[in-house]
Description:
By secondary structure, this protein is of the alpha+beta class.
Amino acid sequence: MKYMMFVVSSLEPDAVSDESDVDLWVDPLDASGKRIIGEVLMPPKESTVVRVRGGKVLTTRGPFVETSEVILGFDILEVADLDEAIEIAAKHPMARNGQIELRAFMQWGD
């Protein structure tokens, strides 16, 4: 099964993970083939929100004011099941300093 793993933190996190901690998490997963891809995203102030209303494209720069948590990055995992995805996510440094959200990819008909 494929899972999208969102790495989430508050706008002002209490702690920032040491990059080497993330490397210790990434390297074995890449070697095993369980991590398909992962990237760190630009800060929320660099985001653009796109909406279409009344046939017009509306864009807003930066996060919504009420946003208290932001997606810092993502990983796509290929694992046997949710239990394995949880096991992998629990070892990510941001599971201690923020949170990890897992979502299975939609399984469409054969």
